[in-house]
Amino acid sequence: MFFDRPDNVQLAKYTGPYERWTFSAELGFPFAFPAIRNGVETHYTALMEGAARIAEGDALEVRVPPMWTTNPPVTPFAMFDPDGEMQQVESQDVKLTRMLQRVGQARFRLNMPIAPATWPQTYEPDAVLDGWTPPATPPRMIIGVVDDGLPFLHTAFLDQDGKSRIAACWMQAARAPDIAAVPFGREIFNTEIDTLRATHGTHERAAYRAAGAIDRTLPELGTVMEHSVTHGAHILGLAAGNDPRTGPHALPDDAMIIAVQLPNTIAWDTSGFGKEMMMLSAIEYIFHRARAIAAHYGLPELPAAVNFSYGWSANRHDGGSSFERGVEALITQRQAVQPDTYLIMPTGNNFANRMHGRFMAPDTDAAGEIHFGWQLKPDDRTSSFLEIWLPTDMDTPQGWEIVVTPPNGIALTQGGTLPISADPAHTGGDPRRFDELEIDGLNIGQVSADKHNGNRWRVMLAMTPTALVGDPKRRCPVGLWRITLRTGTQPLEPHQAVDVWVQRDDDPTQLGTGGQQSFLVDFNHPLPPRPLEPAPLTPVRGYGCLNGIGTAPAVTRVAGHIGCTGKPTEYSGASAIAVMANGTILKDRAHPTVSTIADQGHFRRGLPSIGVTSGSGARIILRDKPAFHLFEPTDFGPGTSGLEDAQTLSRMGLSRAPAVCKDPSATS
Questions:
Q1: CB within 8 A of 663, min separation 6: which ones?
Q2: pLDDT tens per residue across span 365-406
């Protein structure tokens, strides 16, 4: 049972349904990821939305990371309760609410906590590039990479003189020095990288430990760099490495690298919660440091391409989320002074996973209702999330409500039907309404409706794990949950659509979350497509299963195709398309920009790249593709029909990028 909080300490007043679920002990807190469930209670990260300034005061220490953007629409920040007053507050969500009240009366996106050991005693943001040695050759471009497990000592990133081309690397979850130019974590420059290589020689793991890149006492950093392969090593090698396994052409010495290593939970937590501050800070940091390096040489802003191979499946998909508005402002402002500015992101990898549904007027029943299923798998050790987004032009859904029905043989004793409208009891913040799903008085889920950012209605379901973890009495029933959307007196117009996304919940191998991916069920049970035929436009479809944080207009979206055929991979994400009753084809503006090789062949999956230590290599089915070789694209020819052209645009964009690794006939 969820106990009502007084209005002035309701976390959702300042944040949203994810925070309410994650930080409330009666709801999802016992099942949150370790960084939250076992995290500290004094240091947190967040985003502040709007143009308001973050309040300063002795009661709360607030740090804004290095920012390139001026007057950002979204401001990342970290906060610390130095006097420990909030330690006396028993409830985690109430404590965080009171901390946010000290920052200012704004709308926030609360993010993950950070370890006290990563918080430097003194933050000096003006001490930029202290510890950096300027190379004799000025940089001609900046390659930025944001990822996990970055092997900054690898020989693939040395210039012709044996010096590191990595100018700076911010390890966000590393133990902090006493004084730092970043608000948390540790910044390492090329000078220290070269010294570590000279001191430790080929004993690279000893060097990583000396650099603070391996630390068993910090779970968000941990021992990832003791692995043979990491996602970050693979991406950094493909994007910026000179190695026999990567690149048809060697990158020159003046291709300088700036990197950011994210905390482990960024890769671990696939719900989409708690990441945006770290991610936005990382991208801002790369452009901020690039500006400082250019200024040292008396140069204008340098051409820069930042690869960020992350994302999640659910979200607005219209460029209106907090992270997307932040990166849109950053990229467009920088492109105004340096047109060769790119943020490169993948389209995602869920095309074939039945994680998206689009329902238009012909998909409703005689009463105008929408019906679909949500299949929850057994032994899922993580929470599951589903989002339903109403049409962008529906300001007030008259009479709409959601009905949640559990699997056969199970009955809810609380909740199940929720009007999609504002609850007058909740003042301030976005219009919103909540209810809890309970069985025999025990909470197993949350259903909510909120007008996200005040301009688009969202319904969200959050469910406890189906495995016996956390609070074992609150295990969510396994099976087919039936979802009904009643449209009341305002049925869908012919041009309108209701979009449904299941949040990604798979299990990253190196982190072992125990997640089991849920999926949507079309009650019409259409036949699957035949081999080599395009996927059908049934309500549950792959078209529209795009990276949920990659739809900002300025982002370069990269899809994946098979090298030997030029056809899309079975998993590569796609933008939304729809066919109207009169034959008109609706195409989403946020389609892939370019497609690059993700699988070298049907029987040669993935791409070769470097491992963590110098001389090692690996082949990973990445599904998150770097695409820095955006020059000389190959245009697709016209298809045989308007629908075929729309499907090609949705899955591959308008051009192919050249290969970013060795010919598939070569040994790797």
A1: none
A2: 999 999 999 999 999 988 999 999 999 999 999 999 999 999
